[in-house]
Amino acid sequence: MLSPELTTFIQRIPKTELHCHLEGAIQPKTLLELAARHGIALPFSDEEGARKFYEFTSLNQFLEIFALACSTLRTAADFETITADLAADAHRQGIPYREVFFTYAYHQRRSIPWEEVVGGIAAGRKIAREKFGVEMWFIADIDRTISPQDGIRTVEMANASRDAAGIIGIGLDSQEIGYPARRHKPAYDLAKQLGLRRVAHAGEDVGPGSVWDALMALDIERVDHGVRSIDDPELVKLLVERQTPLTVCPLSNVELKVYPSIAAHPVKRLLDAGVLVMLNSDDPPMFHCDVLDNYYAVADTYQLDADAITQLARNSFKATFQSETEKASSLQRFDTEAARLKAEIFH
Ligand code: ADE
Ligand code: ZN
Prior knowledge:
With 347 residues, the chain is α/β, with parallel strands linked by helices. It has one domain (4-345): TIM Barrel. 54% of the residues lie in helices and 12% in strands. The chain has 17 helices and 8 strands. The chain has helices spanning 4-12, 28-38, 47-53, 59-70, 76-92, 105-108, 114-132, 148-160, 162-165, 185-194, 208-218, 233-242, 250-255, 267-273, 291-302, 306-318, 324-346, and strands at 16-17, 97-103, 135-143, 167-173, 197-202, 222-225, 246-248, 277-279. Strands 1-2-3-4-5-6-7-8 form an 8-stranded parallel beta sheet. β6 (222-225), α12 and β7 (246-248) form a beta-alpha-beta unit. It is globular. It binds adenine and zinc ion (ZN).
């Protein structure tokens, strides 16, 4: 059991989140409203039904349900609603800065124009800043299963909208088995040339070879998940040397049966090895969790103290795509606030 003091410390210490999918973060209440707005039938009719419906056996089965959530999104107003919701949710959890994925392939398949998606994101992002004081940036994820040519097209569209919609980089997600990261090398080469930041989901459904592939072929700057790197000491050594951040999502990994429990999860072993690990929610309502729940679960399982929590939260600021000057001042503000909170809560 976590002490009330540590629980309060986790709630109040500033954190960033760098691994959260816009379409996977729609709260059941909003999902039901969006479905009603567009006359779409869902396999559940209330929030409790949604909770029960979100049961997964694998990543690929999860992705089918992710597509169902996407099917409720049609207009810029829909994307604005879910972006603003995500800002309110960040504010509630003590998250002043969030980098968020969106995956256009799921909308393109339904003939939703790119402009509807980024128009809504831009409007929601403004609400995030003005109403909630939350800074949100976006990462345009390439669905691994699309063609290399469509991957390049995603980068071109992301680049054209980078200022309007706060798009800072590109990522890679969806089905890992059977779709090696290197298929999208042309898209990543272009992104690098254009000065877009580069991340990729890897080492979730496939072992360390998939992380090597993303690091070497795509020259990524951060690994999303990356947890299965633990099975290759050489890879762990490289991640430590380069201080390549891993955006780890422990409760997601348990829900998708990557690991049977948090106790069996490598998060603590990666941290102890010196890897720059930070905690995230991935697709929060679908995995019945938020960022705080991930901190609670890891802290409780591994008996972490306030200093260990501070390190995890500090890592979350170190791993952002802020400019070096912005990052230095964010870290300075973080250190002051963390020390103040520690003194206030633990006396
Ligand atoms: N899309 C949404 N969540 C994902 C995950 N955990 N892995 C791969 N693709 C995703
Ligand atoms: Zn993810």
